[in-house]
Amino acid sequence: MTDAVQLTSRERKTLRGKAHALEPVVQVGRAGVTEAVVESVDAALTAHELIKVRLREPLDKKADAQALAARSGAALCGLVGHTVILYRPDPDDPKITLD
Predict the structure, then answer these.
(1) Angle at 79 between CA 65 and CA 45, to 5 degrees
(2) Residue 80: what are its φ and ψ, rounded to 5°?
(3) Domain boundary assignment for the chain
(4) Which of 55, 83, 54, 88 is nearest to 69 (CA)?
(5) pTM of the prediction?
(6) Whole-Å CA distances, 42 to 13, 55, 57, 64
(7) Which of 57, 23, 28, 56 has the alpha carbon at shortest distance from 40?
């Protein structure tokens, strides 16, 4: 995977605001962060850049959120309840600006 995106706290806050209206596009079940989940997150990030992932019955939600971010090469913007906010800009044509 690619290197994780580095964001400032202000950029993370901006992205959390933009993600507020979004619905989770990937759900992590009892099995946790599996290869299939990582592939789904990767595809969703490629299509949308900014996504929400819902964790169902996580044993350690912080570890799951960090694992998703690391394995998908995305930045972890936030963890609200059991919902993870991830961001990975399109290298060729970024859709979301962080101004």
Answers:
(1) 60
(2) -115, 110
(3) 9-82
(4) 88
(5) 0.92
(6) 22, 16, 22, 15
(7) 28
Distances (CA, A) of 78 to 11, 33, 43, 56, 66: 11, 17, 20, 17, 10
Report the C-alpha gap between 69 and 56 in whole angstroms. Answer: 17
Provide the token pair at 84. 């993870």
Q: What is the pLDDT of residue 93?
A: 81
- Please report how many Cα atoms fall inside a 13 Å half-sphere around the Cα of residue 76, on the Cβ side: 16
The pLDDT score that the predictor gives to residue 4 is: 65
Please state whether 19 falls in left (phi above 0), alpha (psi between -120 and 50) or beta.
alpha
Identify the residue whose tokens are 């959390």: 16
CATH code at 9-82: 3.30.110.60
* DSSP 3-state of 53: strand
Q: Which residues of the chain carry a pLDDT beneath 70?
A: 1-4, 99
